[in-house]
Amino acid sequence: MDIINFAIHTVFWALGFFFLFRIPRCQGGTEGRMSYPSVSIIIPVRNEENVLPILLSSLRNQSFTPDEIIVAVGQSEDKTKYIAEREGVVVIEPDPPPKGWTGKPWACYQGAKVAKGEILIFLDADTFLEKDGLKRILDTYLNKDGVISIQPYHRTRRLYEQLSAFFNVIEMWAMGTFTVAGSLIKPIGLFGPCIVMRRETYWNIGGHKEVKGEIAEDIILGERFKQQNIPIYCYGGKSTISFRMYPNGIRELIDGWSRGFAIGAAKTPLPLLLAIIAWFGGGVGATIYLIEAILNVSNVLIFSWASLYLFYITQIYWMMVRVGTFKFYTALFYLVPMIFFVAIFCYSAFLIFVNKSVRWKGRTISLRNRKPTK
Length: 374
Known about the structure:
Layout: H1 2-19, E1 39-45, H2 52-60, E2 68-73, H3 80-86, E3 90-92, H4 103-114, E4 119-123, E5 127-129, H5 133-144, E6 147-151, E7 153-154, H6 165-174, E8 194-198, H7 199-204, H8 217-227, E9 232-236, E10 241-243, H9 250-258, H10 261-266, H11 270-295, H12 299-320, H13 328-332, H14 335-355, E11 357-360, E12 363-366
Parallel strand pairs: 1-2, 1-4, 2-3, 6-9, 7-10
Antiparallel strand pairs: 4-8, 5-10, 6-8, 11-12
């Protein structure tokens, strides 16, 4: 029975390589291109005085200069609007979101309405571009067309930020497009922090109006594109675009990840969801059975389960370094961020499906009147 149990857990571990096999990055390679389409960058913001200067500075230092940068300021109570105006970008201040709209889709929609560029790039305020990152994004898009989205590389600084490790890994895994099957499996949606498309593509589906009341608007927006047979592509952001999420403490981190993670899980195809659960179970089991073997002083079992535990450590570290600046000790003691992930996931499910409201940036967002997505 111990052999069968160990074999099952080993299979669960192997699932990690199958479902997060390759994370493509944006590439250049169009040095001979003589001209580019006009580009508008749209940045929805609310109380982003600490991060907006970093993003705007990174945009100034790019080898490729966008035709316009639009900052849509939504009822900010800090110096966000002043900072945007000081930087000389186009600043719009939309009215408060109408009933049925959430803040980000409303700001993106208003920004797109005034944009003049042929290519629209939506960026979250807490992102920033690496050197030549904007050119790599545009080159990649022009080689694909359709819609592309990029999950930024997560740069961490403080110890508590290591707790975000599994959220990043599972978000990539659950997207369903980084498996050994490659492009044969289409992504379930888009990564919200960086989305690129042609303006006509955006308006052909109705823009963010189609996802106006959604918390996980990136996933639902991707569904709308797929319904119109518009191809979507997902990339990892390493060496192209980065962010530092939730730098203001663990409370912000909890609020941020619990805001919509359960909705994303509900959209994950069942085989992928079961694989994630199995992989998690294998990681927890490897730890529990190793402790049990040590307590029973069983040398054969200690060696077996210690080997699988080390395999999990190695695999998790291999995953983490491709999505962010996560430390080896986070992989070594992976059970801690794994338990944190499960706890926040359950909390997210409670907020969304039971409490029917989430809190973000000083706002309580009610989900009671949210229509179910088709």
